[in-house]
Design brief:
Length: about 350
């Protein structure tokens, strides 16, 4: 499979993305384990997150993990209310026409509850597929434009005009953030402090969706909480896209050495009491986040973080009740907030 060239010429879509709408409530869940656990475990976890009232369930895709769109179908099939979002589907894993039509199937089958998140991923998750990771912004632009060209060739039906697929894209630095508000409904950010959310909102402007992932550790033992938080960011400090983004925010070599400085860990992970975690999520919202996707970092006894999500749900419900849902466009919006 080859992705569209960055020089591909786009044919204009018949329906502008501006007329596609997605509305998100302020609190979602980002659950890393959904990329690797068996379907029986994933279904039970998704069902409980749905019942707890969280607005959106985000799940990742890595190299060799569960495939994004089929995994999304498993999660959607196990739930009734919650929106399910890919965070993210790797654009190097499938061509843009396949991605667009897979998203359409999920949207049709599950009442509009699927939100497509796309990302360029990282060299170590792309090159082993037989691709060469290069020009990520240009590649993403070409991919989104190819999705919107919407070719249709089949003996079974005639082509009809279809709206572009609603999507957000993974974005950290200004060029990709600018693309997120040009050819997507907004940005999904990962491993970011509150300052990044503030800068991203300034670049995106007031309307596009902005959904930062926020790691949290709920533990009364502050030493344990800190060590768990520090261990969770180690993989990312060897990943150039994240390191360069953190440099843009003012962190330096001393912050990346030996598993991460305390200053860096405290900026990226909310740890400690319920009040401290809720305060960080509130700070992300105040900085411009449409929704905060909370990723719980728990121990081996609860790898999906369900116990923590249960404990935090009442406080998050109160926080969500004080804020209105954020949307893009007025056409066909779906309102949803965290409820008990």
């Amino acid at each position: 499979m080859s992705l569209p060239s960055p020089t591909t010429t786009r044919q204009p879509s018949s329906t502008p993305l501006a007329f596609v709408s997605v509305t998100l409530g302020p609190i979602g869940v980002w659950m890393a384990g959904l990329a690797v656990v068996p379907a029986t475990v994933a279904r039970a976890a998704a069902r409980e997150v749905d019942e707890l009232g969280y607005d959106t369930l985000w799940y990742p895709e890595g190299l060799g993990t569960r495939e994004s769109f089929t995994n999304g179908a498993v999660l959607l099939g196990a739930t009734e209310r919650i929106r399910v979002a890919s965070g993210i589907a790797n654009i190097w894993g499938r061509d843009p026409v396949s991605a667009a039509n897979a998203a359409r199937v999920l949207d049709d089958a599950f009442g509009g509850r699927f939100l497509l998140g796309l990302g360029v991923s990282h060299p170590r998750q792309v090159d082993p597929r037989g691709h060469v990771y290069e020009k990520p912004v240009a590649r993403m632009r070409a991919y989104l434009e190819a999705m919107d060209d919407d070719p249709f060739v089949s003996p079974d039906a005639s082509a009809t005009s279809r709206a572009p697929v609603p999507r957000v894209i993974a974005a950290l630095r200004p060029p990709m953030l600018e693309l997120a508000c040009e050819l997507a409904l907004g940005a999904h950010t990962y491993l970011v402090p509150v300052e990044h959310t503030r800068r991203a909102r300034q670049i995106l402007g007031p309307r596009p969706l902005l959904v930062p992932e926020q790691k949290v550790v709920l533990n009364d033992d502050r030493g344990v909480a800190y060590e768990r938080a520090r261990a969770a960011i180690a993989w990312y400090l060897d990943t150039p896209n994240y390191v360069e983004n953190l440099r843009w925010l003012g962190f330096g070599d001393e912050d990346f050495a030996a598993g991460g400085s305390r200053r860096l860990v405290e900026a990226l992970v909310a740890w400690g009491s319920e009040d401290e975690i809720v305060a960080r999520v509130r700070a992300q919202l105040d900085a411009g986040a449409t929704q905060v996707a909370v990723q719980v970092l728990d121990g081996p006894d609860d790898p999906l973080g369900l116990a923590t999500l249960r404990r935090l749900a009442p406080a998050f419900t109160e926080l969500a009740g004080s804020r209105s849902a954020g949307s893009v466009s007025a056409a066909g919006s779906r309102s949803s907030t965290l409820v008990t």
